[in-house]
Amino acid sequence: MRNIFENPTTVQFNHRVLGTLTFISSLSWAVFIEKNKHLVPRSTLNLSRLIALVASNQVGLGIATLVYLVPTNLALLHQANSLLLLSVSLSPDSPSVDLVLLPSNLFINILKLCFINLKPLEISSSFLLPPL
């Protein structure tokens, strides 16, 4: 267990893996919201775009920090941007959305529950989404 936190090579590997997962998940969420923008409020759409932008900036700063052999100013920007990414990701600006449970789109609705703060799904006999 000490090796995970004290070995510099392992720490750097873990940092890269978790950073890559964060980047991929934030971009995936933004693409998902973009494809379903008719279902979500404008503020959620803007929030997903902002998270993708800040995550992309974080990756760019991380790569630049390594390429230029860890100059202090870039390392500090990378740290500050990580706080910005965390703050934006925890934003309460993502409002609730009402969705109808569609049997054919069950998987998509489950994904929406995971990525958006939603009210419980309503089961409807019609297969139409409610108007926003």
UniProtKB/TrEMBL annotation:
Pathway membership, UniProt: Porphyrin-containing compound metabolism; heme A biosynthesis; heme A from heme O: step 1/1
Highest taxon in the source lineage: Eukaryota
The entry's keywords: Heme biosynthesis, Iron, Membrane, Metal-binding, Oxidoreductase, Transmembrane, Transmembrane helix
Predominant localisation class: membrane
One GO biological process term: heme A biosynthetic process
CC cofactor: heme b
Transmembrane segments: 13-33, 45-70
Membrane disposition: Multi-pass membrane protein
Compartments, as annotated in UniProt: Membrane
Catalysed reactions, semicolon-separated: Fe(II)-heme o + 2 A + H2O = Fe(II)-heme a + 2 AH2
GO cellular component term, pick one: mitochondrial inner membrane
GO molecular-function terms, A-Z: heme A synthase activity; metal ion binding; oxidoreductase activity, acting on NAD(P)H, heme protein as acceptor
A Pfam entry, by short name: COX15-CtaA
Protein name listed in UniProt: Cytochrome c oxidase assembly protein cox15
